[in-house]
Amino acid sequence: MIEITDLRKSFGNLEVLKGITTTISEGEKVVVVGPSGSGKSTFLRCLNCMEDPTSGSIIFDGVDITDMKVDINIHRRRMGMVFQQFNLFNNKTVLGNIMLAPLHVKLTDFRRKKLKNAFIRISNLFARDKKPLYEINANRQQIKEEVRENALRLLKRIGLEDKADAYPSTLSGGQKQRIAIIRALAMNPKVILFDEPTSALDPEMVGEVLDLIRQLAEEGMTMVIVTHEMGFAREVATRVLFMDDGQILEENAPAEFFSNPQNPRAKEFLSKVL
Amino acid sequence: MGNFDKKIAKFWEIFINHNGYAKVLTGLQNTLIIAVVGLAIGIVIGTVIAAIEVMPKYKRLPRILNGVCAFYVGLFRGTPIVVQLLVAYYVILPLLGINMPPVNVCIMVFGLNSGAYVSEIMRGGILSVDPGQMEAGRAVGLSYSVTMLKIVVPQAVKNILPTLGNELIALVKETSVVSFVGAADLYVAFSYIGTNNYEFMVPYLAMALIYIVMVMIIAMFVRIMERSLRKSDRNN
Ligand SMILES: Nc1ncnc2c1ncn2[C@@H]1O[C@H](COP(=O)(O)OP(=O)(O)OP(=O)(O)O)[C@@H](O)[C@H]1O
Ligand SMILES: [Mg+2]
Predict the structure, then answer these.
(1) Which stretches of chain A are DSSP H helices?
(2) What is the complex's ipTM, to 2 decimals?
């Protein structure tokens, strides 16, 4: 589903990613581990072009999204992203956070279709063979209601429906991060990218967030997870990527990787963190 | 100072019986309209300029737009507003063959002028918003401008509301030059009263008083706003 070929990224003179090649298939849970500064976040952020790669290609669903000509926004809608710092929209309620993007996309689409239909109607007046109109099967109000219901359903799933009208600043870190996750989920993404989703949390809140991610994993969601939670990595991953110095030094099944790492640097890294 | 009572009586006479109060009211109205509508226009222009200024600059178009904005801001901050009014009223509009009431010209010029100042304020406001907010918006597939408009700018405005209040105070005070192009403001009203009884001391004192009261009222609103914003930050 995501094919990454010779991905490189430099910040000025500093080459942070030095040629990364790997493929992420549907349903996989790829966990990326490695020492600090090894380029894990940069790698993840290149996957949805939050950082523009310096060279290399990323084929997502058959489209090279590193191409400056593609509309990256359309592809980002299919790739959720969850940040270490949650990044909930501070000026929106919880419900507003979840609804914003889906509603915007659907309403924009709705407006565009209506505009196109108006043009088609006019040109049909003069044309002999009439062009069909775009199908519009919901009005603005219905679209809103549908998006709202979906958002509430997701909120209920994490047991926070009573927080629908609260503002992010009133929530705990664990609540924020779970809402950030369902905000990503509300777009029906094909893959979700997690960048250290539990690193900014108080220890007692790590569990609730990992539980939610675990659930999504079990439901078959494709994920790429950067994490320092080795126990969680071992349990959820279908594949582990060990990165150091901007390269993938080892790529292995979790059981193999954690019990019997091949790469010397991976050995050293694991001996420090386990 | 002995005849101060008499001066006040004379002033009062013109103010009440010779339509002085109507002129003062018109002047007050024009002053407020020019300042408030000018600021509103300034906020719109300033927001657009600020959004362009903080845009990533690796593409051609933002760089060009940025140059245009820098020129605009330099122009309006680099010349006195009186000069801008005079040039607009006596040079640009006649050249374009446009006839416009002086007050409207003033609103326009004050809007353009404050746009340059608000852009600086707004840029500070936008930069004070956590970059994670923009990232999160882009990550769910919203465009730069939509994220700016729906997420970043509302938070920026909240941060700079008090500063915008101070900008309004500055504008109110600056409107005292609009009579240069024939707009009827407080100065025109009180000069009329003064000319009518050859006595300027009391009218100009009254004018000063009105400006002070206006500024104090706006400043009070700004303080109330600051306090309630601080409170909402605490509770949230
Ligand atoms: N925007 C940037 N500009 C310049 N250098 C950057 C930028 N982002 C990251 N870097 C540099 O790239 C290198 C890799 O950073 P990255 O954040 O990808 O590491 P990481 O593996 O995620 O580390 P950590 O585990 O600490 O999060 C670091 O040396 C960092 O200083
Ligand atoms: Mg990182």
Answers:
(1) 40-47, 72-76, 94-126, 140-157, 173-185, 203-218, 230-236, 254-259, 264-273
(2) 0.89
